[in-house]
Amino acid sequence: xxxxxxxxxxxxxxxxxxxxxxxxxxxxxxxxxxxxxxxxxxxxxxxxxxxxxxxxxxxxxxxxxxxxxxxxxxxxxxxxxxxxxxxxxxxxxxxxxxxxxxxxxxxxxxxxxxxxxxxxxxxxxxxxxxxxxxxxxxxxxxxxxxxxxxxxxxxxxxxxxxxxxxxxxxxxxxxxxxxxxxxxxxxxxxxxxxxxxxxxxxxxxxxxxxxxxxxxxxxxxxxxxxxxxxxxxxxxxxxxxxxxxxxxxxxxx
Length: 253
Fold this sequence. Notes:
The chain is α/β, with parallel strands linked by helices. It has 10 helices and 11 strands.
């Protein structure tokens, strides 16, 4: 069987999580490289950092597939340690699938729900950013117990704003999901689990009567990398998951 090309892999990913569903501010798709390049080895990473590129190069990767775009804001200059510079230097293509994978069935948020053991999670909307949200019914619990469960399941430290009410229906949204607090409340959930949340997000959540748990951007999105590796089994190629950890360190008292 001939090697798939970068284009073949892009078209396959587009069938799973259409690039045209990306948010207006996003930059998903083939961002670096030749679409006609044959691919024998794909490296996968949540973030394309200099270290991830070096690891992909050491693994002999022809393509690196990531969740977060390697080019997000306009580039005004590049330096030798910039990820985009290194990709071009090593002739490694980069395909990034960001918000389409947040929205897609089986994508980031379904992977997060699965990692948390929430069976039967469903999308709360069909379009717009609210399409990223997944909601599931769970055995009745409270904010502290749910937060402890999330911390154990994702092996991380969490922050909690407890609305002080029983929790029977929970929404999840990996990454920066606090902007959709109102959408989560409108969906009738009792709690939202996301990655990032600021001071005012916690205040707003309590005002909405919604328990909010922030478990880390990296930690809530990383489960999708194993899912992507499984999806690529449709091709006869080698996949390498680049080991990564969250870029922040939590300092105890």
